[in-house]
Amino acid sequence: MSSEAMLLWGLLFSSIGLGYFVYGRKQSNKVVLYTGIALMLYPYVFSSAITVVVVGVMLMCVPRVLSL
Question: What is the residue-averaged pLDDT of the chain?
């Protein structure tokens, strides 16, 4: 079950990361671009589904927090 959850969460956050990457490249926004790269790569580092979700949500918030 854990490996299935990891695959699904990894796919979800990698897809969101791809969207961030494309948007950041088109808008020349380095924060969003690098956040997108991080979202695509970080699921390979963690082995717990809960950790993947928590880190993913935190990474998704980075551009919003840094733009304030």
Answer: 94
pLDDT at 67: 82
Contact 19, 12 (CB under 8 A): no
Helix, strand, or coil (residue 68): coil
CA–CA distance from 33 to each of 4, 8, 14, 44, 45 (Å)?
Answer: 28, 23, 13, 19, 20
Asked if 32 and 18 count as a contact pair (C-beta separation under 8 A), the reply is: no
pLDDT of residue 25: 97
Q: What is the mean pLDDT of residues 19-38?
A: 97
> Helices 2-27 and 30-41 sit at what angle, rounded to 10 degrees?
160
Distance, in Å, from the CA atom of 42 to the CA atom of 14, rounded to the nearest integer, reads 9
Q: Which residue type occupies 49?
A: A
